[in-house]
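Researcher: Next entry in the queue.
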Amino acid sequence: MTPVYTTLRADFVKGEVTFYSGTSETPTSNPSTTWSVPELTKQFGRWHFGMWLKFSSAGVPTVEGTVQYPGGSGLILLPGTIGSAVPAGSMGNVILRIGGVRVESLQVSQLAVKPPTYDEITQNGAWKKTATLDAPDIPMRVIPVISGSAWQAITSIARATLSTAEFDGDGIFKWRNRSRWATAPTAANLTVTSARELASLTITEEIDACRNHCSVKWSNWAKVKANKSTLKSAINVASIAPGGAYSIAWTIGDDELDTPPPFTYTDALPDCIRFVNANTDTATMVYGAVEVKTVRENGSLVVTMRNRSAATVWLRGKTTSQLSISMLTPSIDSGVAPSDNWAAAWNTTSQQAYGVQEFEHDPQGWVQDSASATSVAVALRTAGAYPFPLLGNVEILADPRIQLGDVVRLIDSTGAVLNTLAWVIGIRTAGEGGTVRQTLTLRATAYNGIPVDAGLTPDPPVDPTVTA
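Model: Structure for this entry, 468 residues:
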């Protein structure tokens, strides 16, 4: 089967939007329909481009497009049939190519019918921007082995890069990188006082919090290649009812990378999958009826097939093997995986006062180049070179305005006699007996200075021969 590529291309220099469809992955000579959109060269801001792609049993794809201007208005592009007839098929993958512009998001949806109005197509008024993200600064070549939910993966990246990830009280996701800790703040987002909000607090300043020699582990993936290795095969024939799902799982090793879903094909070749309309060797192939995905769960590779059609389909090959997937393993020119390396940063002034306090940070594979590892080590050194006071169990009247990473001014005029700025590094809110209790964990933005041992008199020497 020859892949067919259907492409929407926006040219901000020429002021054109073009649809392509053909066998060339690069849309240069494919049959095309071009629309003149002069506003592409005039308006600046956030643009929205959409493409409604529909396959028919006759194998002739149809496509419609939308363009929304930064000012809010836009166009609906209706080129109709694109290209000549192609074999019946289904969507295999989506490729996003970017040239000289920033992309905020990409969304792929499967809908029964095309939204009837322009506002519904663009979801105008139905959503607001739901994320605030710092610029990415940790490049990656390979996603490390990880299992669990998407949120667990996000928190793993945050821990590895000293970032914070949270949903605020308005449901907006916020990602802040480690640069937020580099400069001590001079102003507070909110003030917490013993006159109103503050109920209790505990202050600690432990030498164990001091880290003046910080090392970060990283692996050099610059020359790594993903090579196909062992085939995972399944020989069982399975039926999938309308709306039903069927899964196959294989045990995989820690050195094996994730693999993409198999393609629907006329035979059970490696990395291909075949569905038919009956449990016979001569049954007709079924395209576009089954969604196939691969996920990594608890040390296993799981292939899940979900039948979206109104008729039963069969997973069946023409030979004894119905499904086989090539696993991917990393290798470099020497044939072995990259070895671990370390980047370090230290503070000699702190070491003279507190001794060498070492800390080794293992980012679990999320840091993959020397520059990134060094920047994380410097951030760790800057944050931990001196024992900043930690204010724990700070119980206050619940205030939904306080968010993770905020700076609060803590004023206690009755107990600890404090007036200091502190970062919010932990929030715990609980309801008890009809009341809401909020407890903060705060980290001071300044330390108390290097100890000078003023006023201490050294003990006189003791003669070991003298007895009491």
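Model: The longest strand covers residues 418-432.
Researcher: Noted, moving on.
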